[in-house]
Amino acid sequence: MRFRTAQLTALLIVAAVGSHANAALLARYNFTGGSSASVATIADPQNFQVHNTTNETSAGTDIALSSSTNTAYLRSDATGSTMTAALNDDDYFSFVVNAPGGELLYLHSLVFSLGGSTNPGATLNNTIYVQSSVDGFGDSNPVIDTRSSTTTNTGGAIVVSTIVPIDLTDAKFQKLASIEFRLFFSDDRTNNGDINRLDNVQLIGSLPTPAALPGGLALMGLAVLRRRGK
Ligand SMILES: [Ca+2]
Ligand SMILES: [Ca+2]
Ligand SMILES: [Ca+2]
C-alpha cells in the first residue's frame, strides 16, 4: 500500500504518453504540384484519393488535385445542396493512414483549409462532412463533424481558411491499426466556375509504443496493471 503514490504516478505517465503527450503530424497533404502524397511520413499515410464515378461538369472533371493551384477541388455543378446528397455523392475525397508495423494510431484531431474560388459576383457557401471507417460511410452512418465556409466574388482567385480542428480524442479513435477518412461536400451553387477548394489536410496524433517508453516506467505500469487485474 505504501507504493500507491508511485504506482499512480506510473499509471498517469503511461496514460499520458498513451494519449497525446507527443502529438505529431501523422499525415499532411498539401497537393503541391497536384501531388497526392503525404509530406509527413512518421505514420504510414497512403496517397490522397479522388473519387468520381460519373462526370457531371462541362468543364473537364468534377473533382481533382490541381497542379496549377496546389489545391484539391470539387466543382459546384457536381455537388448537391444537402447533407444527404453529399453523403451519397459519387464525388468525394478520401485518405487512409496506417500505423507502421507493430504500432497503433492514437488520434488527436483533423484540420484542413476550406474555401473556394468563384465567378465574378458569385457567392459560394459550402459544407464539408467528415466520416471515417470507424463509424462507416454514407447516408446511413454518422458524420464525425462538419465545417462550412463562404467564398465571395474572387473572380477565379482561391481563398481558403484554416478550420477549427475536428476533435478525434474520443476513445473510438485510439489504438487503431488503420483508419480511412472520407470528405464529402454540399454547396449552394451549380456552376463549373464556382469551385469548392480544400488544402493542407493534416491528421494529428501519436504513435506511442511500450518500446518508446522509458523501460522502468513501462514495467512499473505493467506491474500495476497486472496487480489490479488480480
Ligand atoms: Ca461526379
Ligand atoms: Ca452544387
Ligand atoms: Ca456528383
CATH homologous superfamily classification of the largest domain: Galactose-binding domain-like
Which structural category fits the helices and strands? alpha+beta
General shape: globular
Q: Can you tell me the number of structural domains?
A: 2
Order of helices and strands: HEEEEEHEEEEEEEEEH
CATH top level class name of the largest domain: Mainly Beta
Distance between the termini: 15 Å
- Got a strand count? 14
Characterize the largest beta sheet: strand count, sense, and whether it forms a barrel.
8 strands, antiparallel
β content, as a range? 35-45%
- For this structure, the CATH topology of the largest domain is Jelly Rolls
Helix content: 10-25%
- Poorly predicted tracts of residues: 5-19, 218-225
Total helical segments: 3
Distinct compounds present: calcium ion
CATH-derived architecture of the largest domain: Sandwich
Let me know the average pLDDT.
Answer: 88
